[in-house]
Specification:
The chain is mostly beta strands and 246 residues long. It has a single domain, classed as Immunoglobulin-like (Sandwich), CATH 2.60.40.1190. It has two helices and 13 strands. Strands 1, 2, 3, 4, 5, 6, 7, 8, 9, 10, 11, 12 and 13 form a 13-stranded mixed sheet that branches. A hairpin with a 4-residue loop joins strand 6 and strand 7. The chain is globular and about 40 Å long. The N and C termini lie far apart (52 Å). The mean pLDDT is 93. The chain binds calcium ion (CA) (4 copies). The site of one calcium ion has 7 residues, from loops.
Length: 246
């Protein structure tokens, strides 16, 4: 009897060890008509999606207080077709700021919109690989990640983006090419074709700088367990997921 209980306990333990923690899963909706990336939400797909994603989690807090809505808050919608992944985000940020003009220097301390993709949802380290991408997008539309040598690299040709600000609210509209882990360069690599039912590692974040040297907050789309929440730039284990649906 005792041996049976021990054996049963080991089976339970092994089962638990093999279970990946459940990740938050977002939905992106299919569009027959690609939205025009012009910073205007008039496209039919943005009208057709009836809800906004609004959850926000503070991954870094440098000012010891959570941001009130006028300091930072967001809502966003996600869409896709065979060729692109689309994001429409409406972001309230009281001060739009870029104090580090070199796009490769301290880009994450400026206002910076981040969109995360792990095409095959493998998770794992991606610091010096293209097995996942974290696109750091500046208010000047520069798009930065880290290449396979560990260098900061501009990947502006992976995404068409338009950001316009009026009265403290910015509309970010973006169309992303999705590359898999075999990506070398845009000359030598083709974006993957997307299909219904596909699940990718995904997430979104915003670094909010309000005119000082450093960002006040780093806000993300989903909960990250543990004490160190500044991990998505190097680990896709901390990404959420997105499913491509009808
Ligand atoms: Ca548009
Ligand atoms: Ca702010
Ligand atoms: Ca991957
Ligand atoms: Ca700001």
């Amino acid at each position: 009897m005792r041996l049976t209980i021990i054996a049963f306990s080991i089976v339970i333990l092994l089962f638990n060890c093999s279970q990946k923690p459940t990740k938050k899963r977002f939905k992106a909706h299919y569009t027959h008509l690609a939205p025009v990336v012009d910073g205007d939400a008039k496209d039919s797909i943005w009208h057709a999606i009836p809800y906004w994603n609004t959850e926000q989690y503070t991954w870094i807090n440098n000012v010891n207080s959570e941001p009130p809505a006028a300091d930072f808050s967001w809502k966003y919608k996600l869409a896709w077709d065979e060729n692109k992944f689309y994001v429409l985000a409406e972001i309230r940020d009281d001060v739009i700021s870029d104090v580090h003009p070199d796009p490769k220097n301290l880009y994450y301390q400026d206002d910076c919109f981040e969109v995360l993709f792990d095409e095959d949802n493998s998770g794992g380290d991606h610091e010096v690989s293209y097995q996942a991408f974290v696109y750091h997008i500046s208010i000047l539309h520069d798009v930065l990640d880290i290449d396979t040598e560990g260098n900061r690299v501009l990947l502006n040709d992976h995404v068409e983006i338009r950001m316009d600000t009026l009265n403290g609210t910015s509309i970010w509209e973006a169309a992303f090419d999705i590359y898999d882990e075999g990506y070398i360069s845009t000359d030598k690599s083709n974006p993957v074709k997307l299909h219904k039912g596909k699940v990718m590692g995904w997430g979104m974040a915003y670094c909010d700088n309000d005119g000082e040297e450093n960002r006040d907050h780093f806000i993300g789309s989903h909960f990250i367990p543990g004490k160190d929440k500044n991990v998505t730039w190097r680990s896709a284990d901390a990404f959420a997921e997105v499913k491509l649906v009808e």
